[in-house]
Design brief:
- It contains 6 helices and 32 strands.
- With about 475 residues, it is mostly beta strands.
- The chain has a domain of about 250 residues: YVTN repeat-like/Quinoprotein amine dehydrogenase (Methylamine Dehydrogenase, Chain H, 7 Propeller), CATH 2.130.10.
- A hairpin with a 4-residue loop joins strand 31 and strand 32.
């Protein structure tokens, strides 16, 4: 009988030539039993074929015993030689094991989305399993933090790390560190666990005409190619381009003599950049609004008193300013006019730091007494003045008794970090929406010390202290989602 290209011949006892073979009849197999011969199945071809293939590879015979390197390609100790095409295949597999693909070489997000859509169409039930695994909620009892190598260990600063910011398009990979010893650093933390943290660019030597003693704040521009920085006792707003190969520093805005800058803040949407001037006896604090792309000046907001903090809404339509005037002012970024005012008696304390949640549904306010209040943000985003109406308080947290100056939300909105600079390890992590403070962090041996800045990425928490070190923790729960 015939199966495909193979011919199977069944021979009986009478058809076998005598003297050449003998038949073992000790078994119980009858003559009528069919003889089954395994038919090799052709391996499926790769979906992507090579652009060029050498036909001589199949005819080549490679000796695997020729060197110690080639011996590592054997699948068994009895294997001594293979064909040329099989040799090339094993070399590719060995290279993939030793040199895994880095994050920057991964496929684009659109390609990943297309592959996910195709897999869902093939198996609709797979979306249930993947969603259950990736979207598991953060538990409010214990948080899993794993200490990672300090990103700036290769060249740590000597002054306090006053600002930290992640790259807008390559978060979890590029980190901007601002130190008070006139130092700006862009660090790659992609291979940090393997001890391969790399400082990509450093700005430490400035022209003498700038007369900068210490940087006070800095952040990435929306394009990620520029860094906007301000310094103490300097009336200049600087732009540093760390990736153009020259590291050129430019002055984009200058105040009148006697005024200095204290903070720079980019809106989450990337449309605006707000620069806050420090308060003086003759000139109260003001906020200069810049275009997020061109960095051109759009206007100025004169607050009329000392300003402690400011924050943008998610879409950048609203800018909140809080200071010593016993009120929180709400400004429209389109008209630069105050559209609402919320008395600080309504929130109970003098506000020293504040931040909207990633979706702007909540707002957290830190006070000079160490109390952190979380409110519904409806009244803070209202375009109309709401008199005699207090914002809805959702949670009040009193785990710290020193003044608060640090406040940062995780991009998922499930985690909030806050603290102050006056006491050692004065940091706390809050679970949302329960509002419970995690009791297992920080511990007594926490290496943070006196924190001066903090920032979240999707999978990491970085904290800058007064000794110039950047302490990094991996958030295990969110790392498992990727």
């Amino acid at each position: 009988m015939t199966r495909g290209p193979f011919t199977i011949v069944v021979m009986t006892e009478t058809s076998i030539p005598t003297g050449l073979f003998f038949i073992d009849k000790s078994g119980a197999v009858s003559e009528e039993a069919q003889v089954t011969v395994p038919v090799p199945v052709a391996e499926p071809k790769d979906t992507v074929e090579c652009a060029w293939k050498d036909e001589d590879d199949d005819s080549m015979n490679i000796d695997l015993m020729a060197s110690n390197r080639s011996k590592k390609l054997r699948l068994s100790t009895a294997e001594r030689s293979i064909s040329g095409s099989e040799y090339a295949k094993r070399l590719r597999e060995q290279f993939a094991k030793l040199q895994p693909r880095p994050k920057w070489a991964q496929m684009a997000a659109s390609d990943e989305d297309n592959s996910q859509e195709a897999s869902i169409l093939d198996n609709p039930f797979s979306i249930l399993a993947s969603k259950t695994k990736s979207m598991a909620p953060l538990v409010p009892d214990v948080i899993a933090l794993r200490r990672r190598r300090n990103p700036t260990n290769a060249d740590p600063g000597k002054g306090a790390v006053c600002a930290l910011d992640w790259h807008p398009r390559r978060a979890d990979v590029l980190l901007l560190s601002t130190s008070s010893d006139r130092r700006l650093q862009v660090v790659s933390v992609e291979e940090q666990d393997a001890g391969q943290s790399e400082i990509l660019a450093t700005l430490s030597e400035l022209p003498m005409n700038l007369k900068i003693t210490a940087f006070s704040s800095a952040c990435f521009a929306v394009d990620g190619n520029s860094v906007i920085a301000v310094a103490d006792k300097s009336e200049n707003v600087l732009v540093w381009r760390p990736f153009d190969g020259k590291g050129k520093v430019e002055i984009i805005h200058k105040l009148q003599p006697g005024l200095t800058w204290s903070k720079v803040l980019a809106s989450p949407c990337g449309r605006f950049v707000a620069v806050l001037s420090a308060n003086s006896l003759r000139h109260p604090s003001s906020v200069v609004l810049l275009d997020g792309k061109t960095l051109q000046r759009l206007g100025i907001v004169r607050c009329g008193n000392s300003v402690h903090c400011m924050t943008f809404s998610l879409d950048g339509s609203v800018l909140l300013v809080a200071g010593a005037g016993q009120k929180i002012s709400v400004y429209s970024t389109s008209t630069l006019r105050c559209i609402n005012q919320i008395p600080e008696e309504s929130v109970g304390r003098l506000v020293t730091c504040m931040a909207f949640s990633p979706d702007s549904s909540l707002i957290a306010l830190g006070s000079d007494s160490g109390v952190l209040n979380i409110y519904d943000s409806f009244l803070f985003l209202s375009q109309e003045c709401q008199e005699n109406i207090k914002p809805k308080l959702l949670r009040s947290i009193m785990n710290i008794t020193s003044p608060l100056s640090l406040l940062c939300w995780h991009p998922s909105g499930e985690l909030l970090a806050y603290g102050g600079t006056e006491r050692k390890n004065a940091l706390r992590l809050v679970h949302l929406p329960s509002g419970r403070v995690y009791a297992n962090w920080p511990k007594n041996d926490c290496p943070v010390g006196y924190a001066h800045s903090l920032s979240f990425s999707k999978t990491s928490l970085v904290i800058g202290n007064n000794k110039g070190h950047v302490v990094q923790y991996a958030l295990s729960h969110f790392a498992n989602r990727i």
